[in-house]
Amino acid sequence: xxxxxxxxxxxxxxxxxxxxxxxxxxxxxxxxxxxxxxxxxxxxxxxxxxxxxxxxxxxxxxxxxxxxxxxxxxxxxxxxxxxxxxxxxxxxxxxxxxxxxxxxxxxxxxxxxxxxxxxxxxxxxxxxxxxxxxxxxxxxx
Length: 141
Description:
Layout: H1 16-37, E1 63-67, E2 73-75, E3 78-80, H2 82-95, E4 101-105, H3 111-123, E5 129-131
Parallel strand pairs: 1-4, 4-5
Antiparallel strand pairs: 1-2, 2-3
Helix pairs in contact: 2-3
């Protein structure tokens, strides 16, 4: 018996199902990594330590202000002077009042620079402010 004559050769075409699986997995990967890329953390800043300092949950639309020892304030790697910071925050509050702000000040930053940032936030009617701290290093037993 010869079964090969009856079996017709069909062109399988382009396999869409595996391609859709790969595209879906890539989409999941990029969405996940995009969330982590938004967690801004300046490497040049050494946060002060606090035993009770926990990493807070990120809030939607949170603005992270990095305050350096020389008084420079950076948001998204862009430096702002007080008038530019006031302008930016005023525009953000006009769009959505109650914007959360996270202040990350270097441990060697003079207190007056942090107060200057707080003063700008108060002028712009921003009240949802939190401060970033780091946990102290674990002591060896």
